[in-house]
């Protein structure tokens, strides 16, 4: 007898089973007041004052339509366009912006806007663990392209090998989750050449979706260049939940590169509202949209985040754990001592320290830690981290 759920739902569920199982495990440990949770990028302190004050200022209605259905509010679009011009040096216009329910909503909009059922979408590995289930749920086909195993740079050969006549989209992520890498303009130019050549070869435009929710979270003054400045056929998704450290307040956008040729850009602009409606009224709530002008300048403390990075990285590196020094995001990515991420994470969990195994990223030999933990949590966890690393074979430097 056939399954009750659809085939695409079954594929999506299977693709995300390892994540949902891990989430359930972490939820079970949430009642332990002594647990040290370095898994998901959740806050461990009260919300940023700038976030709460921005929302509080918009709660009281100013008109009878204050809480009516919202699409993309014009003031929010204008604010985002100005911010993008400042961040990326490109001439974005308000009409290029669709406000969404976080980056999740922006990605869903991009996939619905650009791809047809059965189209293939190239995704990075290791990469965000929700790309695959989202694509399956949209009746699209994920195609993995491994990053360079040593540097976690984009591997252009791997991307080219993943492209077929059915490829419609390539997804890139910089600063990258989970590795923290920030890719250079030279990398984007090489990728643009590759995608232009492949598009001509197959007679079908390949789009680039630039996943940029961590764009404003970078360390050491490192520059950021978006591929939207290099490859015209690019759309950008963004989430405010990262820089505000408030993933439960869903606010983001999809932005069309201003370099998209005018005819195609106009067609996409006209489709943003009807497709946003069609995928389930994917626009942010009223208060969040009204808050955008105030929220553009609100950010978690990047200097404190850098201190947390340096504290964890320095101690674990000295203990012999091989790590990738993050250039952005709020994650630390490393090789599991002993080579078995599940064993490393299980041994830590027995001591009340919870880190994310690389199995969630199709990398069974690695682990990820969230830097959104407090410094006190880091100091309490480090003896356990170094002890377990030593017991599994790490050698102090």
TrEMBL record:
The keyword Transferase applies. Keywords: Aminotransferase, Transferase. GO terms for molecular function: transaminase activity. It comes from Microbacterium gallinarum. This is Aminotransferase. PROSITE patterns: AA_TRANSFER_CLASS_1. Residues 80-382 form the Aminotransferase class I/classII large domain. Pfam families: Aminotran_1_2.
């Amino acid at each position: 007898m056939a399954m009750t759920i659809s085939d695409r739902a079954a594929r999506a569920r299977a693709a995300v089973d390892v994540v949902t199982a891990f989430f359930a495990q972490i939820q079970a440990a949430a009642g332990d007041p002594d647990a040290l949770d370095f898994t998901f990028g959740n806050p461990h302190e009260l919300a940023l004052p700038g976030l709460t004050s921005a929302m509080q200022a918009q709660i009281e209605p100013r008109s009878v339509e204050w809480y009516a259905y919202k699409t993309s509010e014009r003031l929010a679009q204008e604010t985002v366009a100005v911010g993008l011009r400042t961040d990326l040096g490109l001439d974005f216009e308000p009409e290029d912006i669709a406000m969404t329910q976080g980056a999740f909503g922006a990605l869903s909009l991009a996939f619905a806007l650009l791809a047809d059922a059965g189209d293939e979408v190239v995704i990075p590995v290791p990469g965000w663990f929700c790309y695959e289930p989202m694509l399956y749920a949209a009746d699209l086909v994920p195609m993995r392209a491994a990053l360079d195993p040593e540097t976690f740079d984009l591997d252009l050969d791997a991307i080219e090998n993943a492209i077929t006549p059915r490829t419609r989209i390539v997804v890139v992520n910089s600063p990258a989750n989970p590795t923290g890498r920030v890719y250079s303009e030279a990398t984007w130019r090489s990728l643009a050449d590759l995608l232009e050549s492949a598009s001509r070869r197959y007679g079908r435009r390949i789009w680039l979706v630039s996943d940029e929710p961590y764009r404003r979270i970078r360390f050491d003054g490192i520059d950021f260049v978006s591929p939207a400045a290099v490859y015209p056929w690019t759309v950008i998704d963004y989430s405010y939940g990262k820089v505000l450290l408030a993933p439960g307040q869903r606010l983001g956008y999809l932005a069309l590169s201003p370099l998209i040729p005018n005819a195609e850009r106009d067609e996409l602009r006209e489709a943003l509202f009807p497709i946003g409606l069609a995928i389930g009224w994917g626009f942010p709530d009223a208060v969040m949209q009204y808050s955008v002008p105030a929220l553009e300048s609100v950010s978690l403390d990047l200097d404190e985040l850098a201190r947390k990075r340096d504290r964890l990285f320095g101690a674990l590196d000295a203990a012999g754990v091989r790590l990738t020094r993050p250039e952005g995001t709020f994650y630390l990515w490393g090789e599991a001592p002993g080579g078995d991420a599940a064993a490393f994470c299980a041994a830590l969990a027995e001591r009340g320290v919870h880190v994310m195994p690389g199995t969630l990223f199709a990398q069974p030999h690695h682990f990820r830690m969230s830097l959104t933990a407090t410094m006190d949590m880091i100091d309490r966890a480090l003896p356990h981290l170094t002890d377990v690393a030593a017991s599994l074979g790490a050698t102090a430097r």
